[in-house]
Write a structure and sequence with these properties.
By secondary structure, the protein is an alpha/beta fold. The chain has one domain: 3-Layer(aba) Sandwich (Rossmann fold). Helix content is 44%, strand content 13%. It has helices spanning 18-25, 42-55, 65-69, 80-99, 113-123, 137-143, 148-153, 183-198, and strands at residues 31-35, 60-64, 103-107, 128-134, 174-177. It has a five-stranded parallel beta sheet with strand order 2-3-1-4-5, sandwiched between helices. The longest helix is centred in the middle third of the chain and has 20 residues, at 80-99. The radius of gyration is 18 Å and the shape is globular. 30% of the residues are buried. Bound molecules: adenosine-5'-diphosphate (ADP). The site of adenosine-5'-diphosphate has 18 residues, from helix 2 and helix 8.
Length: 200
């Protein structure tokens, strides 16, 4: 296949296939797309889940706002255009990992249905598993692990999800409720949901 400029040639029909890589790793790769308010527990649960999976011999990659925004997306801000570009790059990166057979766990607030739909379209529906870390706003605000709610209440952060910008809960996601539960319990619950999808 040739691009319009005539300078890019696809090698996808020549390189090792995803299936061969999945066979090597003895797993089926998917993208877990964790959505939820800031402080809901996306990253904390993802880390615990990744540890459980590692112990069972699964190869994973965890992507979150900190490793993405401090690296590949450090030139992006929070305008609508930049948020869209942020998600587009994250989704494209996830696709590369999935094509390499790696189970990819993404932790991004991704507050709107449109943003998650964009990610789903890039990654492909078959490989996209949406997970809603469902924690009431009051609890997230009490936890406030990064002090962001305090700043948002003082008006120091504009368009902060849950305070001054909306969060649209997904309708068709794996739902993990965290209120009154230990992190380990939430991670185990999520692991049980995804085990049938990743094989072994
Ligand atoms: P997010 O990635 O969604 O912004 P974080 O994982 O950074 O959220 O922060 C969640 C905070 O809530 C952490 O300080 C974590 O220790 C705490 N927490 C308390 N209970 C739970 C639970 N059951 N699941 C996840 N996090 C929890």
């Amino acid at each position: 296949m040739k691009d319009e400029g005539g300078n890019i040639y696809s090698v996808f029909d020549e390189i090792l296939s995803r299936k061969e890589k999945e066979e090597l790793l003895k797993q089926h790769s998917i993208v877990l797309w964790m959505t939820g308010l800031s402080g809901s527990g996306k990253t904390t649960i993802a880390k615990a889940l990744e540890r459980l999976m590692h112990e069972d011999g699964y190869l994973t990659e965890l992507l979150d706002g900190d490793n993405i925004r401090s690296g590949i997306n450090k030139n992006l801000g929070f305008s609508d255009e930049d948020r869209t570009e942020n998600i587009r790059r994250i989704a494209e990166i996830s696709k590369l990992f999935v094509n390499c057979g790696v189970i990819t766990i993404n932790c991004f607030v991704s507050p709107t249905k449109a943003i998650r739909q964009q990610a789903k379209e890039i990654i492909g529906e078959a490989d996209f598993v949406e997970v809603f870390i469902d924690t009431p706003l009051e609890i997230c605000e009490q936890r406030d692990p990064k002090g962001l709610y305090k700043k948002a209440r003082k008006g120091e952060i504009k368009d902060f999800t849950g305070i001054s910008a909306p969060f649209e809960a997904p309708e068709d996601a794996v739902v993990i409720k965290t209120e009154g539960k230990e992190v380990a319990e939430c991670a185990k619950e999520l692991y049980e949901h995804i085990l049938p999808k990743i094989g072994k």
